[in-house]
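#struct-pred

JT: dropping the chains for the assembly here, can someone run the whole complex?
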Amino acid sequence: MKIDTDYPDALALHEAMQLIRSYEERMTAIQAEGAAAGTCTAVGQEAAAVGVMAALGRDERILTNHRSAGHLLARGADPGRLMAEAMGRATGYCKGKSGSLHVSAAELGVVLTSTIVGGELSLATGVALAHKQLGLPGVVVCIFGDGAACEGVFHESLNLAAVWSLPILYVCENNQWQAFVHRRETMVGERVAEWATGYRIGSAVVDGNDVHAVRAAAAAALAEVRCSGRPFLLEAETYRLRGHFEPDDQAYVDAAELAAWRDRDPLGRSRRALLAAGHDARALAELETAVERRIDQAQAFALASPYPELAELTRDVFA
Amino acid sequence: MKIDTDYPDALALHEAMQLIRSYEERMTAIQAEGAAAGTCTAVGQEAAAVGVMAALGRDERILTNHRSAGHLLARGADPGRLMAEAMGRATGYCKGKSGSLHVSAAELGVVLTSTIVGGELSLATGVALAHKQLGLPGVVVCIFGDGAACEGVFHESLNLAAVWSLPILYVCENNQWQAFVHRRETMVGERVAEWATGYRIGSAVVDGNDVHAVRAAAAAALAEVRCSGRPFLLEAETYRLRGHFEPDDQAYVDAAELAAWRDRDPLGRSRRALLAAGHDARALAELETAVERRIDQAQAFALASPYPELAELTRDVFA
Amino acid sequence: MSIMTSQQALADALAIEMRRDPSVLMFGEGVATKRAELLAEFGAGRVRNTPLAEGIIAGTAVGASAFGLRPVIDLLFAPFMCFAMDELVNSAGKLRFLSGGQFSFPLVAMAMTGGGWGIGPHHNHNLEAWFAHAPGLKVVMPSTPADAKGLLAAAIRDDNPVLFFSDIGLAFASGEVPEGEHCVPLGKAALRRPGGDVSLVSYGKCVDTCLAAAETLATQGVSAEVLDLRSLKPLDEQAILASVRRTGRLVVVHEASRTCGVGAEVAALASEAAFDSLRAPPCRLTGPDAPAAASFPLEQAFAPSAAAVAAAVGRMLEGGGTVADAAAVA
Amino acid sequence: MSIMTSQQALADALAIEMRRDPSVLMFGEGVATKRAELLAEFGAGRVRNTPLAEGIIAGTAVGASAFGLRPVIDLLFAPFMCFAMDELVNSAGKLRFLSGGQFSFPLVAMAMTGGGWGIGPHHNHNLEAWFAHAPGLKVVMPSTPADAKGLLAAAIRDDNPVLFFSDIGLAFASGEVPEGEHCVPLGKAALRRPGGDVSLVSYGKCVDTCLAAAETLATQGVSAEVLDLRSLKPLDEQAILASVRRTGRLVVVHEASRTCGVGAEVAALASEAAFDSLRAPPCRLTGPDAPAAASFPLEQAFAPSAAAVAAAVGRMLEGGGTVADAAAVA
Ligand SMILES: Cc1ncc(C[n+]2csc(CCOP(=O)(O)OP(=O)(O)O)c2C)c(N)n1
Ligand SMILES: Cc1ncc(C[n+]2csc(CCOP(=O)(O)OP(=O)(O)O)c2C)c(N)n1
Ligand SMILES: [Mg+2]
Ligand SMILES: [Mg+2]
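RK: done, full complex below.
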């Protein structure tokens, strides 16, 4: 499996976002038909995922969370194996044991994914300690949500990373929601990045729906971590356009807020920018069709894949 | 039992500090003889304890931690019952079940004491919620150490208190040590109060070895909490002059740092100030003798007290 | 009586108890969003969303319960309780004893548990035995909507901390539920089906598994008794022993892992205190000592099946060799 | 051989294993302060103090162990593990399985446990059964300095997460310890004293209790076998069953609470798999289902005494009635 780090131009970034969008919309359809368990999508957050992944090198190790399909796909994950995992098939990245919520793929450097909110924060310091102690190349990128920032382990993780000078790029995808609770009900400030100050950790906030801005901010942050050897926190302001976990009618979401953020949909913005830059509408439509075909193939692969055999019930428990 | 809130003058404050000092030195002697289990003293931190307690009213509810003898005595605890508790006697505040490390005394408003570091922080929000919801008088005072501030629950507690506007006066006794680890090895900043900013919680730092300064700062902080209904964090900068847990040879402590803080011993400072203000040295000596006599009586009471009967092994587990 | 699901029965109990006692309040991640009807009736003070932080949710409940409130907290899924163990075990479970009885902690901590959702071991992990092992806590896990309602009401009224586990696999199963106030006493098992040949002791959704196995066994002329523990602590030892003394045979069935699970306690208890009545070795059918995979067929195979229970009873009645070894895989 | 305490034996094992394998490192609250000799020999990178935060200490160990390090962490006292349950149980115990075997977690989490210090249940609480119940973790608890050394070395070399409990009551007891490299395999019990009439199965400091009881019983003409489990997971089921089959009688003794403790597992196992050999009901002697008070006499009375063990065996041999009920208080 090849790690995607090469995003030569705006079109490539757009295509990566489109792939995520198509993948996730397909997954919700599959789920609605009852062919997969419930799942968390990150529709509306594609720019944050692609922008960050496009800034990383091959040696970075990435920890992410339950809302990770975008991170995996932007890192180069095979949509077929990812879908197979989400459907619990033996050909999935984790043999179908993880399902959609805790997919790790060591070959892509996407490691130790936890769907315990905050799990990524508690594990990242260790991965970074290993990097530092053993002189491994690459820094550790820890992607988490605004909700995870409310868990105590956020405090413990940032504090330890600061005290031990660990090479961690913390990326907070602040999508304004923590399952069924709006972020403003859970913290007094507007931004998670405010909390970085207390640990003397550098931070930046970026428009998380602008893929170019995210890529630039992530590249700068990464350079900072590489050069200082110290942690840095990048906050991407974005919005979860679909529900928390499929199916979800979003009845609890303020319609005006949702509409405002729909206008800022990163794919729409990217498409408008491409058209404005002279790209051809038909070429974009073809790109979308090609992406849909990849997703068709992925789905076919997943559906044709076997379930794990029952012996897997107790395999992989101990080394 | 009468709650001590009335400290009419500097002499009364001095006497309260002297009582704590004598109590703790006696406890270490008793421990050294093997007549009590190991214990945590707060020698050097008496001004923080007395200053805060002298600022509180009768209705305040106080949560404290393992280093709490000073808080209890300054609140009016009977040294005999406290010593009995430390020696595991049935006449102790908790029937001898708690020993020296988790003494609570509902009648004094000193409640739910935990020797799990951070326990006080996780419980204080609930006590404050009850105060707020049921309209109980008084605010909740939560006393914790610089070490506790490193536990994740510190973040969770302050965040919830801020979001729910809970009437809590957080008092951090920053004594520079967390058992056998110096504070500077555990956080990048110099002060715990820096962390309050992230929650938009007001804070103040006070010379924790100056009993008058602490009392004034605590009174101001308390007024702030009463008036705003919101949390406030007061940090008292002080120093643990003895070891973490008796016996402790303090071999790991920097001698120069220790010497510098010995010069700032709150009792020495208070004594010098009293003499400078015209108090008579002999009167002070008599006060000390009287305090020693109270401690003698306390010890005699504790030693004469019976151990709990074996049925206590399983009593008080369930309501 | 009306027909409702366990989810509805829990909502019913919450509303009734909150109406009955103004000191009852409920909070947790998404509680105010998901229980909009409670929010509407009882207001934002008594029905609260919280930040995503299980430790302080539980700690706040402990502190509040000591001073006049009766909090019910929703910790969502059992594995998330791992972030609240200090508050539940060291504080709620110990501070009454440690204070010499000065404080009580009338609180209820709810969580869903078990398979059925296909989303893996960070949501699906049966931890009830941990809390039965820890002092000072009560633990319940209903198997019917009526018991869901009655046990939750009793848990809210109890003056001790109660862990209330809801089996995910039963959330949408419906059944008859008494209207109005309804309490099921903590610590009392329910005899779901009387029988003379073997005692099937279980709780949660595995009670249905046992009932199905009992049906099968009946067609084979075997009369199986099904005892639903309902309360895991206090455990209804008398009911267990009475049943085992009657039938002389014990099969314990649960989804939780085998080692040091509730089944170990029940089997140990029976062999200690009803030894002379036992006509065959007791037998545990449990989930494996492994995390629960997300994959549907693996999740399905995790908990013992009715067929496995019936087969274990069959082997037991044949009396051939050690049942446990053959059953250990299930 | 040299004579040393368990504390010294642990220090010895740590130094030897760190010398042997540069990927071994140790951290925790006060580790660098209290293990100054390790700090001097291996430097500040491999011997580290941490902030006071058990969750991130454990989480850091989990993350580090997946990428080439072999961390040993000191969580001080077992109840403090309540702040690290997510990292130990949800991460260390489940992520290997959940990732389909992509990662392994060779780490050791140490903690002291049990009575002996008189400072109450926030320091003294035997939680080993929790970790035996959770998947993917190994659990050991030595009863001699030699085993302390050998089990710690084996735990460090093992490719799985191992919970290493040290009984506080044994910290300063000394014994013969092999010099140099010394491993005791995980999962193997030790027969401390052979005997034919009854099997006393135990671990930690209660092994000494059983040995003392066996002495007393010998003077009464009763030959008691003492089996020291050492590893609680994997449990040496063969050794337990072989012993019970030999003696026909089982008494399990531990300080941890009774309900769903290791004793429940052992008693259940024996009655399932050695039923026909049992000549009397198995019997558990355990600490009460209560927090451990600080008060010295209460702490002393918490764990079963040698006299209680001998008395339970006496009653068992007399064959009169149910042993468990009489013993339940101990
Ligand atoms: C410890 C824990 N608590 C609660 C949950 C349930 N849960 C899953 S995702 C989620 C919201 C997480 O919010 P955030 O961290 O902002 O990430 P987002 O879902 O918005 O991407 C919650 C509450 C969980 N998985 N783990
Ligand atoms: C959760 C937990 N971890 C560790 C300990 C052991 N311990 C007891 S006191 C202490 C130091 C606490 O430092 P701080 O909060 O600054 O309070 P201080 O002792 O300095 O008053 C430690 C590590 C504990 N009791 N609880
Ligand atoms: Mg979010
Ligand atoms: Mg301190």
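JT: nice. Chain C has 14 helices and 14 strands. Residues 321-330 of chain C have pLDDT under 50 and may be disordered.
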